Amino acid sequence: MLELPTDLPADLAPLSWLIGVWEGTGVIEYTADGHRFEGEFTHRVSFSHDGAGYLNYSATGWMAAAEGESSVALVAESGFWRLSRPAIAADPGPALLPPIESTPARTVDDVEQLRADSGGFPIEVSLAHSDGTLELYLGEINGPRIDIATDAIVRGAGGKEYGAASRMYGLVEGHLLWAWDIAALGSELASHASARLAKV
Q1: Measuring CA to CA, which residue among 54, 56, 72 is closest to residue 64?
Q2: Confidence class for position 65, pLDDT limits 50, 70, 90
Q3: Other C-beta atoms within 10 Å of 52: how many?
């Protein structure tokens, strides 16, 4: 049974089912630049909160190793997941700037006003990868399903070519299932990896 926290800011209510640590395995299948990438990997994802109106996110992945070999670290990423809404004077930032005014805490009614015609809520996800890549995803959370796609990708001058991505997350029978499509190394947007994770 999935237990949802009750002490969350109202803006986190639609995202609350993500909170916790999830672990499992997945598969990589992608062809780019004349090379076929495939194999099984182990994945660990953590969603947490510190009382603010966003979720902290971190994830790591390792390629399963053949007997007698060391596993290969694939990626570590960290970032923030939040409902997409206009900033108000009571929000801190940018940088270390404090809020300009104080207002009552946001309520469920405030959050409900963000609901889209589709029935879901717009979200934004900002991620930093261990290889120096930065991604900004925009999308929607609708109950136990999340669909996001990159609005921007930033990489250093020496980074590998990476043009676009989309991700889908879903809660199915108590497991977090996800799929990640990418356009990279000269290939069009296509399925790249997927996994099934259990809460630990």
Answers
A1: 72
A2: confident
A3: 14
| CA neighbor of 191 nearest in space, from 29, 57, 26 | 29
* pLDDT band, very low/low/confident/very high, at 103 (cuts 50, 70, 90): confident
Distances from the Cα of 151 to the Cα of 126, 136, 148, angstroms? 10, 6, 9
Residues 21 and 132: their CA atoms lie apart, in Å, by: 24
**Residue 163: how many other CB atoms lie within 10 Å:** 15
129 is in an annotated binding site: no
Q: Where are the alpha helices (DSSP H) in 142-200?
A: none
pLDDT band at 2 (very low <50, low <70, confident <90, very high): low
Measured from the Cβ of residue 19, the count of other Cβ atoms closer than 10 Å reads 19
Amino acid at 171: L
- Residue 139, phi then psi, degrees to nearest 5: 180, -145
CB 78 within 8 A of CB 127: yes
Q: What pTM does this model have?
A: 0.93
The residue whose two tokens read 């946001």 is: 106
Does the annotation flag 43 for ligand binding? Answer: no
Residue 33, phi-psi category: left (phi > 0), alpha (psi -120 to 50), beta (remainder): left
Closest CA to 135 of 151, 153, 162: 153
Q: Which bin fits 68, alpha (ψ -120 to 50), beta or left (φ > 0)? A: left
Largest pairwise CA distance in the chain: 60
